[in-house]
Amino acid sequence: MRRGLWTVLALAILGVTAVGIAYARTDIPEPNEIATAQTSIVYYADGKTEMGRLSDSEGNRVSVPLSQIPDHMQKAILAGEDQSFYQNNGISPTGIARAVWVAVKGGAATQGGSTITQQYVKNYFLTSDRTLDRKAREILLAVKIDRQQTKDEILENYLNTIYYGRGAYGIQTAAAAYFNKDVSKLTVAESAFLASAIRGPSLYDPALGEQQAANAKERSGYILDAMVENGWLSASERAEATFPDTFVDYKPRTLRGTSGYLVEMVKKELIATHKLNETDIDRGGLRVVSTIERPKQVDMEKAIKEERPSEKDIGIGMASITPGDGAIVALYGGADYAKRPQNAATQDKMQAGSTFKVFTLIAALESGDFSLRSSLNGASPRYFKEFADPGADTEAGRRGRVKNFGGESFGRMDLRRATGQSVNTIYAELNIEVGGKNSMKAASDAGVRSTLQPNVGNVLGTDYVTVLDMATAYATIAAEGVRANPYIVKEIRFLDEGIEPIPVKPVTKRVFDEDLMSDVIDAMTYPVEGGSARYVGQNLGRPAAGKTGTSESFRSAWFDGFTPQLATAVGLYRSGPDGEELKMENLPDSGDITGGSYPTRIWTAYMKAALDGTKVERFPEPANINKNAKYRPSQTSKPSGPTSQAPSTTAPPSTTPPPTTAPPEPTPTPTPEPTPSEPEPTPEPTESTPGNGNGKGNPGGGGKPAPSASPGG
Q1: What does the UniProt keyword field contain (predicted)?
Q2: Would you say 80 and 195 are in contact if contact means Cβ atoms under 8 Å apart?
Q3: Alpha helix locations (H) across 308-394?
């Protein structure tokens, strides 16, 4: 016991000595250049080329003496941030303990109930990195400054350096930015508002929306009540301090061009994934390296400009991802973020069309009941009670008719060729056997994050998904079953070079077996090598796999595909003035837009340029799993009616609401119409067998579902 007590005492003495030495050696540094140095910048993946800036701050700051700042403004800040400011020694022991505990458990050192002195130190002398080392430096500096400066000096410096939003650093600039007046003329209510704004300008500026206005009113009321409780404001003065109703008109600096979508994505990821707050981003001096590779981004924008339809109301979203890693290397969310801030690749949703058939194929092979050699009946039309819609306008619809593109009827066909020719009737039967729930699960496992429905119609693409969803899911297949969460922030750096940059590690998980994926990839080479996307095979010059998709009435058109080292999805849609879905059918310049036309041409132009000079990689040999699959045609749903032509019908409608999209404003560029050899389908299937990207086999035929039939393509 005696030895233990002496050990504890010795450790305590050593700890106190270490803190004392650290305190003595801690010098108060020169303040950062707030006007420029603390602006956060986003770079392309090379870490050198600037993409854009993360805040609208211009670094405006005008210092004023504390005597010029109204007493009620000073007290409003104390009420909101540090009510014991004049009594404490510059730090909050309970807040520090909380921060240490969170960090010990593995979190960031962000907790702390910081005093005004600590905030002043962090904002004026230190960067906003989130480590215990930075927290320790903050504490030592706060204590030292508290001893070397008077409380009034600290408060004056704090009021003159804190960021209030609207590009305003310091209370004098903030008074002008919000109320167009000198700080000395601020009212009690205006002071309470400005004390609220520093918590997060984008959350409390009424000019940014109704929710921000409500937040500001609630926070201002809290501050005013706290002033009364502390004896800094009388009850009558509190009653007269109504929320300001006159603010200076303000429009935040808007990001422009295609890069605006990327910078906004970076900002959202910093908040959602890396838990940075608005202050960290607005004035943290961050240097954020994105995953976007500028050459590929240029290639993508060029491909869209040169190959897109000429109609102005056609929206395009595109995303390119590194399989097995999740890095977004290029993304097109629209032509100009300033004109349309909704991202066509991450926010707009379109029916998936036949790109969804791949997930039914995965579910079928996973079940063990099917192999790629399993054959089904490709006749058209076919009737399935599971696809019946009691509310349909025709008898055929009520009975559940499914037909192939153009009504083309095929004989028995294995799943490889059925994938290449996108045979609706075969995949409708397959999904009945597999179950819509299992197709939905396969899509979710692959990385589709949009809301999906477990009905049998999902195989024909009734679900609404984003372009990034499909790029992620197809990247999982390209990575032979390894799903990687998509991300756009590659590294976070700090102004203080003594602080190590924070690298971002990919988040991956194996979700499918490699042998299963080798068979799925093999089947997905069939559309490219002679099916609905044969334009790719004719022009790319290297092995590729993918799937076209065209939804009912041509409301969306897709091509999603990949090589072993790059997965890319492109989706086209058309919307009206109120965001309603419009058909891309019989257009004046472009005719009918299908997955095998413009989407495939855009995809090929981009991938050809993006992969230029890189090694030609080949896909794995198919494993041909489930060789002893017991599936027989007699075990499947049989046609429940005649196979003669009948009026078309649609699959059961998706319960997912239609996309909410404002009219896109792309840059129109005249593009020649596809030649007769490019659109889908080919007149008749061939008996030749496409290969798997290993140089085997010959191209086969292609086919697309009818626009009047169930969504597909």
Answers
A1: Carboxypeptidase, Glycosyltransferase, Hydrolase, Multifunctional enzyme, Protease, Transferase
A2: yes
A3: 357-367
Q: For the chain, list residues with pLDDT below 70.
A: 4-38, 55-61, 93-113, 123-135, 279, 282-284, 496, 498, 630-713
Measured CA distances, 554 to 557, 668, 692, 707 (Å): 7, 20, 29, 6
- 492 touches 286 (CB < 8 A): yes
CATH class of 57-255: mainly alpha
Strand partners, 60: 168
CA–CA distance, 188 with 242 (Å, rounded to integer): 9
**Residue 172: helix, strand or coil by DSSP?**
helix
- What gap in Å lies between CA 706 and CA 551, rounded to an integer? 9
Whole-number Å distance between alpha carbons of 702 and 530:
6
Nearest C-alpha neighbor of 168 from the set 122, 201, 196, 145? 201
Residue 104 backbone phi and psi in degrees, to 5: -65, -35
From first CA to last CA, the distance across the chain in angstroms is 80
- What is the enclosing helix (H) or strand (E) of 402? strand 401-402
Asked if 516 contacts 481 with a C-beta cutoff of 8 angstroms, the reply is yes
Return the bridge partners of 548, or none: 559
Domain range annotation of the chain? 57-255, 295-635
Predicted TM-score of the model (pTM): 0.73
CA 594 centroid distance within chain: 26
pLDDT, tens digit, 9 for 90 and up, residues 386-427: 999 888 888 888 899 999 988 899 999 999 999 999 999 999
The CATH number of the structural domain formed by 295-635 is 3.40.710.10
* Distance between CA atoms of residues 434 and 455, nearest Å: 11
Q: What is the CA radius of gyration of the chain?
A: 31
Angle 424-596-304 from CA coordinates, rounded to 5°: 140
**What is the CA 56 to chain-centroid distance, rounded?**
22
Buried b (16+ CB within 10 A) or exposed e, 611-623: beeeeeeebbebb
CA distances from 608 to 563, 594, 613 (A): 11, 21, 10
Positions annotated as catalytic residues are 81, 354
Which amino acid, residue 52? G
Residue 624: CB atoms within 10 Å: 13
Handedness of CA 607, 610, 613, 618 (dihedral sign): negative
Tell me whether strands 60-61 and 168-169 are parallel, antiparallel or unpaired. parallel
The Cα–Cα gap between 659 and 661 comes to 6
State both tokens at 515: 């042998």
Q: Are 644 and 386 in contact (CB under 8 A)?
A: no
Token pair 């290397």: residue = 329
The first and second tokens of residue 494, run together, are 């700090």
Phi/psi for 491 (5° steps) reads -160, 145
- Three-class HEC string of 626-679: CCCCCCCHHHCCCCCCCCCCCCCCCCCCCCCCCCCCCCCCCCCCCCCCCCCCCC
Helix (H, G, I), strand (E, B) or coil at 188: helix
**CA dist., res. 459 & res. 346, Å (int):** 22
At 640-684, the pLDDT tens digits run 333 322 223 333 333 333 343 433 333 333 333 333 333 333 332
> Helix, strand, coil: what percent of the chain each, to 5?
40, 10, 45
